[in-house]
Amino acid sequence: MAHEMFVMKNGAKRNITQLIGNLSWSSNMDALGMEMSFDYASSGNTEVLELGDHLILGNNGKVINYFVIVNESVSGRFSKSYTCFDYGWYLNKNETVIQFKKVSASKAIEKLLDKFKVKHKIVNIPTAITKIYKDMTVSDIMNDILDQASQELKTKFRLEMNKDMVTVSKLMDLVINPQIRLSSNSPLFPVTSAISNPSKSRSIEEMKNKVFVVSNDEKSTKIIAESSDQAGITKYGLMTEVVSVEAKNASQARNIAKNTLSDLNRIKGEVSVELLGHDDIRAGRILMLNEPVTNIKGLHLIKSANHSVNLGIHRVTVQLEAI
Prior knowledge:
alpha+beta; Phage tail proteins - horseshoe like beta roll fold; Phage tail protein beta-alpha-beta fold; 4 domains; 3-stranded mixed beta sheet; globular
């Protein structure tokens, strides 16, 4: 694989790959987009990068993502480093005011993105959204809408920026099996078969075993629904969660209580491994693992992925959560 970098200036694309060093990019479940950083060798005879320039990261002619330069650091006369974010950065920077009245979650997100003329591909999400949003960023509004849908439907979704398009997918539809060749004439093999530096931890720190659903009406303290795990309370002690919601009927409120408990009432297992790099590996994807030393097996959600390319060698470190 051969990664390349291009800068877009005045409508023209220029290859600056030979001036790039210590290239890395990362994604995280808590963030809408990717972050990229690199060192840049500059002189009076080479292309000058500027804040706000748009870059294209590619591999063998395939576009991985588009980025905008956000931060610059100068460490010498001819040495600079840059931090860039993909186009999801703009959705984190723009606040808006918008109202939805019994609009499906998917239509609400589409309406919001249409307001900013952002391309989108949204899976159908039937949860009805009735809410006024003020002084919130576009990305925070979308996350709030998806949180409401996940609570009601017991379905997790992945919101992310793919090149210049916002996509929302069901998380369980994002299982991948990345494969690479070590040389042009060698067969493909899955990168998960060559795990290095595996580590595993387990924790009950974020566990909750009783959930109350209440109205977000500041004048009301009424509990609309609740759900609990008595066996878990006896074993681990009482740990409660209160979920505030817009007006819901009793059935919806019970679903929210039940689904929230199902999500939070568990031991969280986290895994860290290093893999040979593959461009499809990013936060929000699901990998099947079978690592005998640490007994890391089964489906795992990629919580974060940190790629690096040095001297032509592409590696990725991933933080995983067992599903």
